[in-house]
Amino acid sequence: MSIQSTPGVYIEEISTLPASVASVETAIPAFIGHTDLAEKNGEDVRGVPTRITNLLEFEGIFGKGNPETFTITVQDNYDAAKGAGEKLTSRKITAVPPAVPSPYKLYYCLQIYFSNGGGPCYIVSVNDYDNVPVKGDSATPASIRGGLEAIKAIDEPTLLVFPDVIPAVLPETVGSVYKDIYDAALSQCDILKDRFVVIDVKDVTADPFADAQNFRDNGIGISNLKYGAAYYPNLSTSLNYGYSSVVQTITHTNLYPSGGTLSEPGISNNLSLQALETTDPSLSRNTLAEIKKQYITLPPSGAVAGIYARVDRQRGVWKAPANVDVRTVIGPSRKVSHDQQADLNVDATSGKSINAIRTFTGKGTLVWGARTLAGNDNEWRYIPVRRLYIFIEESVKKATEFVVFEPNDANTWLRAKTMIENFLSKLWRDGALAGAKPEEAFFVRVGLGQTMSAQDILEGRLIIEIGLAAVRPAEFIILKFSHKLQES
What are the Cα distances from residue 370, in Å, to 230, 260, 299, 304, 473? Predict the structure, then answer.
């Protein structure tokens, strides 16, 4: 209280309202991989976590996808019987994408992320398209592991996504990139306890069970499984490949009757697509139309991260990101049957559950699973339960920072307890916690003889215990039918 020395009216404001817990963001992914560029406002941001909010912003800083080289042919058919000289009767244009496309999928994953409801995210560009990934156990700045280390220092991200680590399309020299990266990411989640990993299962065989077994045996370790979820198979998207009109050339062939003479000039062989835009705009448009009929196949993590953001925004982090449509896709790269999914969803030996993405008649392509990798763990089996705890833990942690260095007495304990109870009461009303009454949904305990001993207070510890009854998804709907005997 200030000391008044001059006669007059003085105003003092008295704070009576309790502090509140502000909800942290729940779906801010960090995408770590290769990009074409990495320059923002004239500064090199290679290896620097950079926050963006839309695809246009990404393109301005990091460029677009790695251009693919198509095999383009224009086949002209002539008929000498049409009059003086041969006349063009038909033209066939084909555009075949490369058998082994570029392994760098980050740009395309960003496209499908935003189209599935994604919002703000972080990008860590570790290298350009001219440099293959280095071995997974390297934490140098120009490696994906280096990107993972860089994002560790940023507090906001809550999801980790690695579009470029599927080894089926990477050179053999990269070693165990896949397992090393995901194990390191899960370890980071366990240390920080504020993020979750979205994992792509290698889709390389015609047998989902074989892919699942390979993933469980060689793709992931046995630690920190509650902090990640795996998805399968790849997605056949409606996104087009990137290409360069300067590099792209066209092979032209003329077919005409044996013995005939070609009087019409046709088009030049090995003409670039850029040159064709000037010499024959009509053929250029038709060629581009053929290129745009070719669609790229992507790992599912980008779309899934967008779905996490969409479901969190529309329903809440406690709603399972499943039974939700996947947008900008033609369908899964392979169909997973009901029986095949049983092997993916539950594995009694390893636990390592894999969430299937399936197509259903009349519904389209849906995410059809909501399990973490800890499929045999009753506490952390479900994605929404794990992510709800991350959300509450992080929100309460940030909100209680004001207590640091406050007197460790009953007044401070009551302020902290009331603040947390108000926050949890709102979550219970929103449907995040189970129970008919708040006391059935959660408890908050703090105090001497309750959560702390006299020694704890002497050593400066204020201990708060929080118990939650998280809602769990109804994964198996069981309908029981029986015959009822006629009574009249």
Answer: 10, 67, 17, 11, 8
Given 3.40.50.720, 3.40.50.11780, 3.40.50.450, 2.60.40.1080, which CATH number is that of 29-65+102-240+296-384? Answer: 3.40.50.11780
Rounded-to-integer distance, Cα 282 and Cα 16, Å: 74
Q: How far is CA 469 from CA 389, 424, 425, 428, 443, in A?
A: 11, 11, 12, 9, 9
Which token pair is 204?
A: 């390389």
C-beta of residue 25 within 8 angstroms of C-beta of residue 96: no
Angle of helix 106-115 versus helix 301-314 axis, rounded to 10:
30
Query: CA 164 to CA 66: how far, in whole Å?
Result: 12
For 358, the token pair is 């399936």
Is beta strand 71-79 parallel, antiparallel or unpaired with respect to 249-255? parallel
Query: Does 233 sit behind a cis peptide bond, omega within 30 degrees of 0 on the bond before it?
Result: yes
Per run of 10 residues, the mean pLDDT along the chain (length 488 residues) is 78 77 93 93 94 96 91 78 61 86 92 97 91 55 85 96 68 60 95 96 88 91 95 95 82 59 54 80 86 92 97 96 96 93 91 95 95 94 95 94 92 93 95 93 93 93 93 76 75
Question: What is the residue whose two structure tokens read 């002497």?
Answer: 458
Contact indicator for 299, 285 with CB cutoff of 8 Å: no
Question: Domains of the chain: which residue ranges?
Answer: 29-65+102-240+296-384, 71-100+242-293, 404-488
Written as six digits, the tokens of 109 are 């994953």
Question: In sequence order, what are the residues at sequence separation of 6 or more whose Cβ sits closer than 8 angstroms to the Cβ of residue 426?
Answer: none
Both tokens of residue 349? 């030996």
- What are 61's two structure tokens? 């800083």
Say how far residue 208 (Cα) sits from the centre of its chain: 21
Can you tell me the distance from the alpha carbon of 66 to that of 242, in angstroms, rounded to the nearest whole number?
A: 6
Q: What's the pTM?
A: 0.89
